[in-house]
Cupin domain-containing protein
Amino acid sequence: MPKLDLDTIPQTNATGYPPQYATAVEGRWYRRLGPASGLSEFGVSHVTLKPGAWSSQRHWHEGEDEFVVMLSGEAVLVDDSGEHAMKPGDCASFPMGDGNGHVLQNRSDSDCVFIAVGRKGDSDCHYPDIDMHLFSGEGFRRKDGSAF
Amino acid sequence: MPKLDLDTIPQTNATGYPPQYATAVEGRWYRRLGPASGLSEFGVSHVTLKPGAWSSQRHWHEGEDEFVVMLSGEAVLVDDSGEHAMKPGDCASFPMGDGNGHVLQNRSDSDCVFIAVGRKGDSDCHYPDIDMHLFSGEGFRRKDGSAF
């Protein structure tokens, strides 16, 4: 059925980040709606950020567009231009290659929920604030290419 | 800036439907967020349905995945399996080629708002309830291929 029963879709807080950068996303619980509902052209994540949790480390993709829309609660969008409150109904776009690292942070004392849309690409991802880089086809490494 | 100021993005109720099928979507006002914000990998529409308005004629795409999430108000999702209330936070997926015609109808007395994600493909679109078919590369015609 097209309408999704979110409770039946597995939820995880898994991350591929090395331990020193994983703490920020421990409270990020997400469901991958695309595979669960037969979508193959783009990815859709239903994300809950517990108080204090971040959506990711601040990052930008060389080859992947991203879009988010807030459903409930409140987050702070941090990017190169500063901090921006994201409330239900607020939308943000992150075009590939824009060089503007972004992250959503839940600084409130209650959960916030958003939908994130992307299209998996084999491209590098940059993390301006930390010594980490996603090398396409290789995974997370230090910026000099060495393994964690 | 990644956070979108929706008020600055043009809103339209334009449709390519022939007049006899256009009335249902006269009250469908939408903004194309992708082009306005630099996204090229998928399309994102921010849609307001006035009371009585439909999201489209009931349809399914041969070659385009679609996803919707409700932001405010309430709509009725009509598909082959019946009618389903769509309230804020509710999500629905319409995988390409599923053969399950779908439409959102606002039967309430206030606006409803949703986000629709898709990926423009050159593929046919089927309309099970009416004598219309979208022929890839040709546009809307009657099911026998004749022009309106």
Notes: The mean pLDDT of chain B is 97.
